[in-house]
Amino acid sequence: MKRIIRQVFGTTRPKEIWGDLLTFERLVTKPIVHIVYWVGLGLLIIAAFAVAGITVGTVIKEGLPWGVLLALPFFIVGMLSILVGVLLWRGFCEFYLAVMSIADDLRHLRQYQEKLVQPEPRAYAAPETAEAAAPEAAPPVADAPAPTVSDPEKNLLEDPFFRPRFEKREF
Predict the structure, then answer these.
(1) DSSP-assigned letter for residue 149
(2) Is the dihedral of CA 117, 123, 128, 133 positive or negative?
(3) ∠ at Cα 37 (24, 6), nearest 5°?
(4) What is the DSSP letter of 160?
(5) What is the C-alpha separation between 97 and 90, in angstroms, rounded?
(6) pLDDT (tens digit, 9 = 90+) per residue, 116-152?
(7) What are all long-range contacts of 2-11, with beta carbons under 8 Å and residues at least 24 apart?
């Protein structure tokens, strides 16, 4: 029993299990879907036996030539309906598992991101003097001459992907 609980919840400690259940951190319906799938498949198999039993009962009740003619289309349509039901049920369960897997992957990505980027705790220290509290003035920046459009080669080296639309250039 502990192995099953560990498979579903990842732990056997009741405090962690209740924490996961109440905060929706772990989705517990993923393992239960397999049981629900097999129960639904069993019900569809019972329905297939019911279709076969109704067709046999119709053949017996109506007699041989007319009973077969009445029961054969019912049997074919019934079995095809059961087959479609099995495929739809399988698709529904797979879709549910895919959504749960996406949710689980997103949870793992969020945990990885939180572990990867953790802000460093900073202790704010008040400045001791008024001079330390004043922001430092930035040193003056020397004015660099802006490139001119008249020099096409210089422009080309600065941005090699820029080509005016209707300008012909020969290199």
Answers:
(1) T
(2) positive
(3) 45
(4) T
(5) 11
(6) 766 566 555 555 565 555 556 555 555 555 555 555 5
(7) 7/31
3-state SS, residue 153:
helix
pTM exceeds cut of 0.85: no
**Torsion angles phi and psi, residue 100, rounded to 5:** -65, -35
Contact between residue 9 and residue 20 where contact means Cβ atoms under 8 Å apart: yes
Report the alpha-carbon distance of residue 29 to residue 96 in Å, rounded. Answer: 10
Q: Which of 41, 46, 31 is nearest to 78 (CA)?
A: 46
Q: Which two tokens stand for residue 53?
A: 């039993």
User: 117, 110 in Cβ contact below 8 A?
Assistant: no
Cβ pair 104, 30 in contact under 8 A: yes
Question: Which of 48-62, 114-128, 151-165 holds the top average pLDDT?
Answer: 48-62
Q: Which residues contact 9 (CB under 8 A, 6 or more apart)?
A: 16, 17, 20, 26, 28
Pairwise CA distance, residues 154 & 160, whole Å: 10
Mean pLDDT score across all residues of the chain: 75
pLDDT at 44 over 90: yes
User: What is the C-alpha separation between 71 and 56, in angstroms, rounded?
Assistant: 8
Task: Say if residues 127 and 133 touch (Cβ distance below 8 Å).
Answer: yes
